[in-house]
Prior knowledge:
The protein has 381 residues and is α+β, with helices and mostly antiparallel strands. The protein folds into four domains: 2-98; 110-180, SH3 type barrels, CATH 2.30.30; 182-245, SH3 Domains (SH3 type barrels, Roll), CATH 2.30.30.40; 256-378, endopeptidase domain like (from Nostoc punctiforme) (endopeptidase fold (from Nostoc punctiforme), Alpha-Beta Complex), CATH 3.90.1720.10. The protein is built from ten helices and 23 strands. Strands 18-23-19-20-21-22 form a six-stranded antiparallel β-sheet. Strands 6-5-4-1-7 form a five-stranded antiparallel β-sheet, with helices on one face. Strands 13-12-11-8-14 form a five-stranded antiparallel β-sheet, with no helix packed on it. α1 packs across α5 (57-67) and α3 (35-45) runs antiparallel to α5. The longest helix is centred in the N-terminal third of the chain and has 29 residues, at 70-98. It is globular. The N and C termini lie far apart (92 Å). The relative contact order is 0.09.
Amino acid sequence: MKKRLMKLMAIGCLASIFITTDFTQAATNNGAVDAGVISAISSYMSKDAVQVVSSGVNTVTAGMEGGVSAGAASEVTLASQQETQPQEAQQSVEEVQAAPQETICGYTNLGIAKVDSTLNVRAEADEASDIVGKMPKDAGCEIIQNIGDWYEIQSGNVHGFVKAEYLMSGDEAKARASEIMSVVATVTTQTLYVREQPNTECTILSLMPMGEELQVLEDLGDWVKIDLDGDEGYVSKEYVSLSSELQKAMTMTEVKYGQGVSDVRVSLVSYATQFVGNPYVWGGTSLTKGADCSGFVLSVFAKYGISLPHHAASQAGCGTKISASEAQPGDLFFYGNGRGINHVAIYIGNGQVVHASSPKTGIKISNCSYRNPVRVVRVLN
């Protein structure tokens, strides 16, 4: 039936040629088409296409089988091919469009920050435009479009524009991603215990909230070894999801302060957050070249005339102990590993802290309860 239908379509194309010229002359020039076939074509060309398909296939093809010469048949075959080619081309396009695109760390058009420290993300494709976020070195993004010397990008919660010269793309970005991507464990339970060893009988080092992303050091089967601000901890794989990821851009949303917050606190927080994305260096105190957690706090507070020791546990003994609910921007949050205090961060308001986290992530902003704080201290009046 399908072959007969194709022949009918071909006959229709051929018939339209004959009808738009002198029909008798066409018959003479194509002597292989007999009167019976021409009569059948003339009759069915005047009918609705649906009627031809449903009731005229046998009649027309019967005449066709008995009265078309090799020359006419080649014209019919050509016409048939011309009709089917566009359909085949359309199917090919649809298949390509339906094919899944390659993704790398969740990005289909990957870009990677090609800078030594951080790349500014601006609100518009203009260097005079406001900075809406920062991409640390080797952070990934989705390239939305190219606009002259700029790329429009999306990375994490940051949407904006970066200078194209500072962003890898294409094969260069793919190659770099294969070198720097890391495995991240995202907490999938309400509260996750981070333990000292990969078992449930040992000390609990910290508590992690749902959605927190932990850097994976090693996959141990039922357990995962993770980085805990430079220390090692273990979490059950049952309560995390693993994925390969790149660092993301960080928002620079204005911090909103409550009443009674001094200008010094506002200034200190603004000063501290400008170093987000800079490197973590064990024992370091440089806000640009690298600092560890207590070195970062020491150097930020030194600018405001406050001298602090270069040790998190020692800093916890300075100032006045307060509750987390009393915290104001500029207060210090301390975290422990079960054996004592081993990490410090500066509270910046809105439930967030800025801190030198680890060699992998550098100076970053986190939720103040990303770990369970063991002490909160006020050193600013």
